[in-house]
Amino acid sequence: xxxxxxxxxxxxxxxxxxxxxxxxxxxxxxxxxxxxxxxxxxxxxxxxxxxxxxxxxxxxxxxxxxxxxxxxxxxxxxxxxxxxxxxxxxxxxxxxxxxxxxxxxxxxxxxxxxxxxxxxxxxxxxxxxxxxxxxxxxxxxxxxxxxxxxxxxxxxxxxxxxxxxxxxxxxxxxxxxxxxxxxxxxxxxxxxxxxxxxxxxxxxxxxxxxxxxxxxxxxxxxxxxxxxxxxxxxxxxxxxxxxxxxxxxxxxxxxxxxxxxxxxxxxxxxxxxxxxxxxxxxxxxxxxxxxxxxxxxxxxxxxxxxxxxxxxxxxxxxxxxxxxxxxxxxxxxxxxxxxxxxxxxxxxxxxxxxxxxxxxxxxxxxxxxxxxxxxxxxxxxxxxxxxxxxxxxxxxxxxxxxxxxxxxxxxxxxxxxxxxxxxxxxxxxxxxxxxxxxxxxxxxxxxxxxxxxxxxxxxxxxxxxxxxxxxxxxxxxxxxxxxxxxxxxxxxxxxxxxxxxxxxxxxxxxxxxxxxxxxxxxxxxx
Length: 526
Prior knowledge:
The protein has 14 helices and 24 strands. The protein is an alpha/beta fold. It has two domains: about 5-280, Spore Coat Polysaccharide Biosynthesis Protein SpsA, Chain A (Alpha-Beta Complex), CATH 3.90.550; about 295-520, Spore Coat Polysaccharide Biosynthesis Protein SpsA, Chain A. It starts with a strand and ends in an 8-residue tail after the last strand.
């Protein structure tokens, strides 16, 4: 008898993204399987409701349950904004689908988020693994400026490395374990993990054991998937992540363009190759194995009396040339640049009038200047950012890699000369942000057209092969009370409604008692 599989999930989606998701469901290989569908229609848009109804008319064995779409759920080009009430509503919907699969004696239920485009072999492959709970791994830029990370994790809330219970690991050990976990998931295979979700096959045995998305009342982790995973392991089940057929996550409407490349390349490639090779679709990737020139690209304005001299002298130890765009400084910033960069080629371009009111124009201009000066690798630092001393040897090693085009680093926001800030709103040091990029002449670079917080690189660079590096970057832009007051006033004047940033973070700049952690410099050889 063919295994019976129930496919579905809660659906609140835009018509454009839902169209793609449903197309991928129809393209799934179901040979040897008896497939049924169940969706909870929680859509606000009539077009999305009609898409589900059309899918039900076109396909057999489809049922549509009614949701409660009278609440607000906001998604934008930055991220998805979840609230606790929405999380537990989704959990109830998922539990309703589990109950159907359990009571109707399905062999499996395949819960899939409605913004995924699945590879046709996904379902057949997951069933063949004979695991009780297994998710197909996909990679997402949770914010546009970050490198892509998986939707599965190793421990706790979203910890991307394993560690002995109670162990206190240093930054170096933490980074090494994180990179080992991410590199493992970049290779085809099936691996035991600590957490998963969004594209998950659940067996009859797991259903019978009592898996559920219900809240565990004495657990502080956010998200119904965490509660599901912890309960599952407590019931004696194991969680697995598979990486043979990664779906495409349409996390933002703007990513529908990149989906075309995924369809054109990934859907036609053989399994067992490198994960996410679809990112090379549509352009010719060029890697110069002879030259690994590093160009420092920096935007400056009235920085002479701040951190600029030290920043440039430090960077000059490991870059090959510098391209500076001065935004009409009224002090001697340009002369400071010339003095600090003696010994390496330095190209200083001076603007006539200040342009930072529309940041994207300046960032784009700096990028174009670096390319015009034949940059191969572009290291984009601000005038108040400095790598730790290990950069002198490590940066040169990074650019020798032929399989990586983007390097991500953790940025530590210093609140004085010896302490960095760490709390809910100030946690860039927990993420890997691109600062070093190999220029690919045939790649279709796209900028985020925003006058503020546009990013220092084109926003789609994280579609290029990217990797995280343990090297840390110190940011001194907040390190004095005067700097913080000036930035607070600027942000509140330029973005009073939080259109381009986060209002709560703006307001927290003047917090009189922030959580600060002492910086520990590492030995240059460590």
